[in-house]
Amino acid sequence: MILILLLVIHFFALTYLxxxxxxxxxxxxxxxxxxxxxxxxxREDDREYAKELAEKNDGTVTEIPMLRVTTxxxxxxxxxxxxxxxxxSGKNCDxxxxxxxxxxxxxxxxxxxxxxxxDDHELYENVFVGNYDxxxxxxxxxxxxxxxxxxxxxxxxxxxxxxxxxxxDQYHENMVIFSDEFFEERWQEVRKDKTEAxxxxxxxxxxxxxxxxxxxxxxxxxxxxxxxxxxxxxENSLYNTEEFLKGQRMRAVFSLSSKLFLMATLLxxxxxxxxxxxxxxxxxxxxxxxxxxxxxxxxxxxxKNIRFETKILTMxxxxxxxxxxxxxxxxxxxxxxxxxxxxxxxxxxxxxxxIMIAYLVIVYxxxxxxxxxxxxxxxxxxRKQG
Length: 386
Fold this sequence. Notes:
Elements: H1 2-24, E1 38-42, H2 47-56, E2 60-65, E3 67-71, E4 76-81, H3 82-89, E5 99-105, H4 122-125, E6 127-129, H5 138-141, E7 153-160, E8 175-178, H6 180-190, E9 199-204, H7 207-224, E10 238-240, H8 241-280, H9 282-294, H10 299-338, H11 346-385
Parallel strand pairs: 4-8, 5-7
Antiparallel strand pairs: 1-9, 1-10, 2-9, 3-4, 3-6, 5-8
InterPro entries: ABC-4_Integral_Memb_Prot
Organism: Drancourtella massiliensis
Protein name: ABC transporter permease
């Protein structure tokens, strides 16, 4: 029973918690996949203000014609033309008619991965172009005559890092790429509507000017920016990268703290389990080693046996948990490489190895402490007996 309990404790610590903690320790891994300091979804009429803001703060601004696009699960995305995508990515993009591509922004992007593990591609093939009204239900219109105008041919879905991931769950603010002909036709309609977004402004600012530029742009957007038609829509029209990443880091620190707390709790639980076991067996230890002492066993051999007895269950459970931890991280790596993820870098492996080694070293030291305690206790009992 004690062995099973220790196995459960060490298994949970060396599998799930070790992998999750190693991933969370990479707190600054995201910034490299955010090429812009501010991403502003606005109107064509805001072009002059955008240029003035960039010039005033010694920054740059890239202007991109865009459409607001909403997928069937009511998540708003950024729609661009094939030629715009080619300019941003440097990749050839040959789309015709109602063909589309779906580029999912990934904060951990290393290389492009095809997305193949979606349960229902139809959720991404049915999209609404424009400022979305949640009263309009795309899911209900699927496979109906009324839904045909909102159906497109999804030719490929993949991960990317062209503007940055400004969505915690990766379902929002991704990129839908349309053919040039279709995009131009719809964009000419949308640009006339002042309630619709028609231009994407991508800003970069020097570090010394960043805070002031954020402040000015935020104030202007609050007063004049595009508004969602319904308050339940989660997306914003302005994303300031440092502010967004600050929130990400705070969430990561909180999650990391909770994982470390759980790991410390498991170590403490294992400590008490072994402590109760050894204390409850103290009388047995005393009788057994009194007999071995009378039989002539050397004190050095007795100490060796005591240390072995006090740590054998922990050695077995921690060893088995370590093997399962290796298998767990291998399955995690496989999932990352085959499930649309970007794999893991060398930093992850360093942190994972350090966590595993540190945990096992602490467990080893705890067992040495118990061995030392039992030996001291037995010596004291012998001295009392004369």
